[in-house]
Amino acid sequence: MEFIVKGRNIELTDDLKQMTEKKIKVKVEKYYNKVVQIEVELSQEKNPKISRNKIAEVTVFTPGEIIRSKESATEMHEAIDKVANKLERQIKKYRSKTIQKGRRANGSAIKTTSLADIDSDLSQQIVKVKSFAIKPTTPEDAIMQMELVGHDFFVFVNSQTGKTSLVYKRNDKKYGLIEPVV
After folding, report:
1. Nearest CA to 80 among 144, 27, 147?
2. Under 8 Å between Cβ of 105 and 65
3. Is 80 helix (H, G, I), strand (E, B) or coil?
4. Residues 92 and 44 in one domain
5. What gap in Å lies between CA 114 and CA 72, rounded to an integer?
6. 81 and 137 in one domain?
7. Residues 79-82: contacts with CB within 8 Å, 24+ apart?
8. Which residues form the domain of 54?
9. 93 and 132 share a domain?
10. What parts of the chain have a pLDDT lower than 50?
């Protein structure tokens, strides 16, 4: 498993890297041993009006799912502790759902494309483009994946209908499913 620690607007000392690896890698491996890569980004907001300006963001890549957690605090050690605890809860939830379903996760990859690939007229409106592999899954599994990455929507191929579909989180905390009619 690859473990990467990146810093933005912060000096990454060896002690900070070791503490991050100890807190996060150990918790992840304790509950889920099929992790391909863990990326940790530690950053500091420069705005003096933001009191919780130390941010720890962790992305865990498994063979089938991506789990993301982000926390902020006044001290970096506190932010790392908070994100490690949140990540532990997410992994436990993910693991229990995959065990209940009796399924094994399938692989998917995400890559980010630069704006140079987009028509110049749209470049003022579109600030980031992501490409990802879409694998057939059920709406219930798509909701689980959406929750794991912390997004409000998730695009997938519905294994029941064969159509590209979208699940989203509604304002009433329930979920919606959009299926196109062609």
Report:
1. 27
2. yes
3. helix
4. yes
5. 28
6. no
7. 79/42, 79/52, 79/54, 79/55, 80/19, 80/20, 80/23, 80/24, 80/42, 80/56, 81/23, 82/56
8. 2-101
9. no
10. 103-123
